Amino acid sequence: MLTETDTEGNLTEIVFALLMIVDHEIKEHLHMDTLSKCLKGKRIAERQLKAESRVQYKCIKSKAVTEVYMGEKKILSLILE
């Protein structure tokens, strides 16, 4: 697994992320430990959607800048290549 640390202590690594996409634009991203947890989160989120919603959910495996905050890993930014 690729892991790099910058001067502020943030890590660059490969992660699974659950994306919330509104009108073809990424509005939120959430770090997930495994692909199966990501897909489960996606199914739960999609159940809450209305039929005519412009919101989509997608699981991706991507390089990201992360940090650990209060014991949980957070994605600061995605590096889409």
3D architecture notes:
- The structure is a single chain.
- The chain is elongated and about 45 Å long.
- Helices cover 16% and strands 57% of the residues.
- The chain is an alpha+beta fold.
- It is built from one helix and five strands, in the order E-E-E-H-E-E.
- Strands 1, 2, 3, 4 and 5 form a five-stranded antiparallel β-sheet that branches.
- The protein has one helix spanning 35-47; strands at residues 3-5, 11-22, 25-32, 55-69, 72-79.
- A hairpin with a 5-residue loop joins strand 1 and strand 2.
Comma- or semicolon-separated keywords:
81 residues, alpha+beta, five-stranded antiparallel β-sheet, 1 helix, 16% helix, 57% strand, elongated
In helices, the fraction of residues equals 10-25%
User: Which structural class matches the secondary elements?
Assistant: alpha+beta
Rough outline? elongated
The percentage of residues in β strands lies in over 45%
What is the C-alpha radius of gyration, as a whole number of Å?
14 Å
The main β sheet shows up as: 5 strands, antiparallel
End-to-end distance: 17 Å
